[in-house]
Amino acid sequence: MIAAPVPGYWHLLSLPGASVLVLPLLVCAAWWLTHDSADGARAARRWLLAAAGAVAVVITSKVAFYGWGTGIRGWNLTSVSGHTVLALLLWPALLGLLIPTEQRARRRLAIGAGVLLGLACGLSRLMLHAHPPSEVIAGVVLGGLAAACVLQALRGQHLPLPRTTSAAGLVAIVGLLLAILPLNLPSERWFATTGAYLAGRDKPVQRKAWLLEGQHASMAGGIK
User: Fold this and answer.
1) What is the tens place of the pLDDT at every residue in 143-167?
2) Which of 6, 88, 106, 198 gets the most CB atoms within 10 Å of its CB?
3) In a domain, 50, yes or no
């Protein structure tokens, strides 16, 4: 059976979780906070630490699967959706920072919009067949926990108007470039190569073979 073509807008909804967009914006926002005040610097450090921890979990899950075949076969869970995690790490916090702290209702709406954007990114990974539901859910859980820690750290922080304008311009420019040019990093290939090398394998573990191996093991166990 030939898979139906995927509408183009799902590819666009994956852009908010692309590492080439998220990581530069996150670093820029943290840099602005660091130069704003001592409290801003502490909040920025917590944001970067949360991001580093979440990204480390994503990378570890991918490298471990490609190298040693870790995961849960019954759930078709091999790793965590990195796009989903990155989108939830950035957008709720960044959009919230663009609204003054005294405007609580608008700030909550901005944060909610960021959460919806992260969830839409996760849905796009599912619709593009980049991940099964289990891996997107894992990304939502990990990204949601990291986002909650980040939002707690950023309470009381705000990017003033000139910086807000700069952030909006940067988002628009980078987003436009990503929509036009093929700027995706071959990160999945890097993880696969690294996992195979560390495990001493000739080639990375493949999902289909991994699932079939589990089915054969179950059948063998049933025969016994």
Assistant:
1) 999 999 999 999 989 887 666 566 6
2) 88
3) yes
Please, are residues 20 and 178 in contact by the beta-carbon 8 Å criterion? yes
DSSP state at residue 4: P
Range of the domain at 138: 13-217
CA 12/CA 21 separation, integer angstroms? 12
Per-residue model confidence (pLDDT) at position 181: 60
Q: pTM for the full model?
A: 0.87
Listed in sequence order, the residues at least 6 apart from 135 whose beta carbon sits closer than 8 Å to its beta carbon are: 76, 77, 78, 79, 80, 81, 125
Residue 21 lies in a domain: yes
Place of tokens 């590492």: 19
Question: Is 6 part of any domain?
Answer: no
How far, in Å, CA of 6 to CA of 3, rounded?
A: 9
Q: Is 96 among the domain residues?
A: yes
